[in-house]
Each structure stands twice: as structure tokens, then as C-alpha cells.
Amino acid sequence: VTASPGSSIGRADATAALQPVALRDKLARFxxxxxxxxxxxxxxxxxxxxxxxxDFVWHRHDDTDEMxxxxxxxxxxxxxxxxxxxxxxxxxVVPRGREHITRAKRECHALIIEPRGVANTxxxxxxxxxxxxxxx
Length: 136
Ligand code: NI
Description:
Layout: H1 11-16, H2 23-27, E1 37-42, E2 45-55, E3 66-72, E4 75-79, E5 82-86, E6 91-94, E7 100-115
Antiparallel strand pairs: 1-2, 2-7, 3-6, 3-7, 4-5, 4-7
The chain binds nickel (II) ion.
Residues 59, 61, 66, 94, 100, 122 line the site of nickel (II) ion.
């Protein structure tokens, strides 16, 4: 089953049924880039998977930090004055209010933790803005 953005399959599974979230299985269920899928929630936060390839858009999140953990591949998080390179197994927290862009030369799979309701494109908006609360 490939979940389309906006679908909400899976929400009840992990927590209510006391099942682990199999990240590799979840990653196999979607292919589009820059479209995060929620796999779990904790308190007011969501854990998401995303596939990145190419350049995202410059943006910032005025109200929240944003955590990235690379599961497979390599990515960059660039700021106006620095670039952070992340390899598989690396984690980085983008500070709130700091303008940034994510990039990956080749497809990269990452896990994101951020508060529910955060737009992936932050203040920038535009065509790469992903639907909220799309579960996989
Ligand atoms: Ni961001």
C-alpha cells in the first residue's frame, strides 16, 4: 500500500497495538521527495520520515527547533554562513529562527522530530509545502 499525502493509515497501529514502528517498512511505502510522513507521536511532537533529493527551499521556523537524523545516505543543511554535512547515523538540530535549506545530491532518507503542525517550508510556503498529518 502506498499512502497518499493526507491519508491517515497507521496512526492507531503503533501506540494502541504496542507494535514497533518498522522504519524500513515505512520507507518502502512512499517514494516522493520532500513529503514527510508521520510514523509516531509523542506528546505534542511528531516523528516523521522524509526522502530528500536535490535542493529544498530556503526557509525558517520562527517558533521551533527541528531535528534531523539521517537513516540512509547523506544530506546537507546549509545556513547563510555555514553548511552542516550529515552522514548516515548523524543527528542535527536546526535552531529556531535560523534560515536554512536542506540538500541531498543523491536520495537520502531522514527522520524528523518536530512539534505537530510545523510546515516543512516554514515561512517560505510555495509548491514544496507538504500536507500536514500525512501518516504512513
Ligand atoms: Ni526546516
